[in-house]
Specification:
The chain is 81% helix and 0% strand. It is an all-alpha fold. The protein is globular and about 55 Å long.
Length: 189
């Protein structure tokens, strides 16, 4: 039992620090390649902070633990939207741009609704069980590609913005790779 507790604590520490290093390395690489701060924030940082969930979900899926993968996704979104956004708004007002209110928030709501519809096979299609299958995965990934295209369009309209710290390329790549390794082992433990 103590070994399980120790591995869980160590895994959590690896996930947290690994995500930090992955984001630092990837952000520095992206800045060196001329990617704007807005795109780095919307893509690189969001990928890095979501990477622990992705690693855990991939491992859970390969092990046949679909419930863990779905629970991780739903719980993460609830925590991100309600807990983190709510706590931040308590500390300081969050100024939202017009695009956020009229485009990004409706897209996020559409994504949640889409997953709900796709996972309602028993109710909507009369099947024996609910499942997200390969076709559903292709549809969700297609919407992701559309959103990434939209995000890069915003970056072109917004311009460069603030500067991101640029580390030497070797250090950035090392941080990225070590962070990715830490995420893998942290997710396994």
């Amino acid at each position: 039992m103590w070994l399980s507790v120790l591995l869980t604590i160590l895994g959590l520490a690896l996930l947290i620090k690994g995500a930090d290093w992955l984001v630092d390395g990837a952000s520095s690489i992206a800045a060196r390649l001329g990617v704007s701060a807005l795109v780095i924030g919307l893509t690189v940082v969001s990928f890095g902070t979501s990477m622990p969930e992705l690693i855990v979900n991939l491992i859970a899926s390969f092990q046949g633990n679909a419930g863990l993968a779905i629970g991780n996704i739903v719980g993460s979104n609830i925590a991100n939207i309600l807990l983190i956004l709510g706590s931040t708004a308590l500390i300081t007002p969050l100024v939202l741009k017009r695009n956020t209110v009229w485009k990004e928030i409706p897209l996020a709501l559409l994504a949640m609704l889409l997953v709900l519809v796709m996972a309602s096979d028993v109710f909507l299609a009369g099947r024996l069980g609910n499942a997200l299958d390969r076709i559903d995965g292709i549809v969700l990934l297609s919407f992701f590609v559309i959103f990434m295209y939209y995000t890069f369009g915003i970056s072109q309209a917004e311009g460069k913005g603030e500067k991101i710290e640029q580390k030497p390329m070797w250090q950035s790549i090392l941080l990225f790779l070590v962070g990715l390794g830490m995420l893998y082992f942290g997710g396994r433990w």
